[in-house]
Amino acid sequence: MWLVILYLLFGDAQSGLSTVTGRIENVINERTTLIENEIKMMFGSDINLSDSEEKVNEIIMNLKHEELDIGFEEPQLFNVSKHFFEYKDEIKKSKLFQLIKQMPKGAILHAHDTGILSPDYVLQLTYWENLYVCFEGDDLRFLFSKSIPTDTCDSQWQLLRDTRFSSGDVEIFDAKLRKYFTLVIDKPNEVYTDINLVWNAFQNYFIRTTSLICYKPVWEQYFYDVLKALREENVMYIEIRSTLPELYDLDGNVFDSVVTAQSYKNVLDRFLVDYPDFYGAKLIYAPLRMVDASTVKNYIEIAKEIDYTIPGFLAGFDLVGQEDLGAPTKEFLEELVEGRKYLQYFFHAGETNWNGMSTDENLFDAIVLGTKRIGHAFALSKHPILIDEIKKRDIAIEVNVISNNVLKLVDDVRNHPLASFLAQNLPVVLSSDDPGIWEADILSHDFYVTFVGVASRHADLRLLKKLALNSLYYSTVKNKDKLVHEFEIRWTRFIDSVIKNSW
Amino acid sequence: MWLVILYLLFGDAQSGLSTVTGRIENVINERTTLIENEIKMMFGSDINLSDSEEKVNEIIMNLKHEELDIGFEEPQLFNVSKHFFEYKDEIKKSKLFQLIKQMPKGAILHAHDTGILSPDYVLQLTYWENLYVCFEGDDLRFLFSKSIPTDTCDSQWQLLRDTRFSSGDVEIFDAKLRKYFTLVIDKPNEVYTDINLVWNAFQNYFIRTTSLICYKPVWEQYFYDVLKALREENVMYIEIRSTLPELYDLDGNVFDSVVTAQSYKNVLDRFLVDYPDFYGAKLIYAPLRMVDASTVKNYIEIAKEIDYTIPGFLAGFDLVGQEDLGAPTKEFLEELVEGRKYLQYFFHAGETNWNGMSTDENLFDAIVLGTKRIGHAFALSKHPILIDEIKKRDIAIEVNVISNNVLKLVDDVRNHPLASFLAQNLPVVLSSDDPGIWEADILSHDFYVTFVGVASRHADLRLLKKLALNSLYYSTVKNKDKLVHEFEIRWTRFIDSVIKNSW
Hints:
The structure is a homodimer.
Chain A: H1 2-10, H2 20-41, H3 51-73, H4 84-87, H5 95-102, E1 106-112, H6 119-125, E2 131-136, E3 139-144, E4 158-159, H7 160-165, H8 170-178, H9 188-191, H10 195-213, H11 216-232, E5 235-242, E6 247-248, E7 254-255, H12 257-274, E8 280-285, H13 293-309, E9 314-317, H14 333-339, E10 348-349, H15 362-368, E11 373-376, H16 384-393, E12 396-399, H17 401-406, H18 418-423, E13 428-430, H19 444-454, H20 461-473, H21 480-500
Parallel strand pairs in A: 1-5, 5-8, 8-9, 10-11, 11-12, 12-13
Antiparallel strand pairs in A: 2-3, 2-4, 6-7
């Protein structure tokens, strides 16, 4: 008995518990274990790296730590904590950025069709034949037409080619015109002072470019060039969201949403012949949410028709537009419960700063409606119960970090809830929303910003690879083995090239 | 057998599962249950309100919803999502703010002594006799002295009274002088462009006011007036952090930290005689962290001496200063493991935007060192494992929302991690850090901003009451029953007065 007591009192002396060194060791061990457990738990931790990957990882981590350490010492030099417009070109100089650019990034699962390509690209569309322009106040409207359009115009319709060449200076004219195709401005924080202002500018881009891009030949060229740009960005597959606007041609024909969807499918087929190494694309029909219930019912009918007409091309259905101003999803519950029998859902939800307001609670609707993925889910970290549901139901979160910065949800991406999603190893896919409108590269900027600015200093190549793999896993592609296999080929090639070119 | 199959196939038809209405009902029920479960789980949900409290709750929630709904419609009108300086005076007009001002708020568990009172208060200290000033470049130094100080001065020491009255215009002179005692400026986001800049200005306040406030008679008056201000703010108790600087008097005496602590105790005793309804105060010795290990060892010796000299007055120990620039806690592990035998810890940790950097990992050190509470823990949401530890060990998080906004951790408080802490019902106490330096009311602004800007729209009076109760529960006061009983008396009086005055 006494021996037991003695042991309890002093027995640990040798293992250190009652000595100074022992106590310190214990605390250090506890600290180390906690940190290790955290690293073991984080997003990407289940990936095992090959020897070659380990070498690339070392290169990547050296570059990352160097950039972080400079920022830690002098925070004013840490670019990605600022507004995206202030550093978007600057970081292209980063070696790490260039490396990420080369990296196969899997798929894009959250992007809106006409917001993908850059203002430079859109500008060159204005060089197409038969394009008329009408300058109205501070804005303008486009229309392709054989002759002067008869649509009302506050000033007058002019052939854009004539206006451009009679402007005196084509360069200045084009520079002015280009501004209509981008949100990028100097001092964004002084101009876009609240979320509605920036959303207004954002939505005006779509309104302004509709008649330009919805000209059927342009539409098809635009999508072809989207696919080309994705391929060049080392993205192999896309599930593209579209409002499927009506298209038109020079003969006065106007085509409905089903034709728009069909034209996407035709372009895709053509592209896959030209570039057989590209994996493919599917469509998420995502019309505007600022409507009434009967319109939503009609949307669902359109989606069903598309699915019937073009079997296998429609991934599913969503609703888009500024959540805070649009109708909350719960107003369409009846229609969406019915639609669920025919459609998979990929709802935008919780793209908001508000807590407990209707837009925030769209997260609940998305989940109970059986959404396969959630667009943004920015507000998710405020809903622990929904985090559990998302894990349980394996619903992916489509995160768009730069979009959330530009559209004023978060000023410093280090505060983006993605940091906590990654720490908890939630099913995250990373995407770019409308990269063209803020002049981001199609996916590289979002990957870079996430890796350097959002994720932990400890997060490494495994995080990047997992982001790519998740974008395949949470896609609607049926044959995942083939998809992942094709990715692995590209990935191995990338790893080898990094080692070979001794970055 | 067939009956069973038939039942399985159709038996739910009546309960609705296979009818349209039934399916919709099920989805609505699931939605409602999830939202209800979330509300049941959130911070404050364990509080039961009396009938009178329910009445007050209704008043409060009407006011809150009104403010939120205006902001939701027109976000530019939603003040608390902006920089604190832009709305701090404006919200004093809010009826809800005035109500919160009246509300008993329990204790302040995280505030730094010389940062508590307003610039107007500090300005009036410069009217004291025997105060000399030395203007140096853009800055100035103070010193109380019987005759012209012999300390070096880049210009010359002048009796402040003479300078003021020979300035031509006392009002202008005082307005200029006042600027040295506040961080508040116009367009803060354009001036304080990074965290180091604002921390520099912040720390200069402390350096600049040291010789002014460390004059022993001023020191004692300042603390007396802190206690008075707390009482007027309906705060009943404080655990005040102090670096315990050396005090001095006109006779050339310089007093060490133990005397400084003693002078606090003396003032407290005097105050409690004058205002016996005030509950009390304790001291957290919190010297600067930007030091070496041997200095920390010395700090601990000082703390032990204070605890020995003034039994029961010392709540514990902490280290202060900008975490990102100071030494990480792990450098002092050895000293702090030893100190733990004698002292309770209340470490600042994770007051940073960085993820996985040394400052972020101070959170691990604080926890393994057995801290009773954590100051700020802003980075905690990035560490799910530590969230579990905090729950398990019942470590309180001392959140200071407005401080985090002013000191540039978060631009829009709707993104403050406190929102997620409250949703998860973590042990939160709300405090104000250095309210005087940003001209906030001692605790009301932080309560208001948390209630309207951070917490869910659904969070009600129970959240406010729980914040107050937690500040008592997580204090080091031994007789919690007495403390809570005294709070309840004040609370009931408040509830009755709101009803009586029909807000």
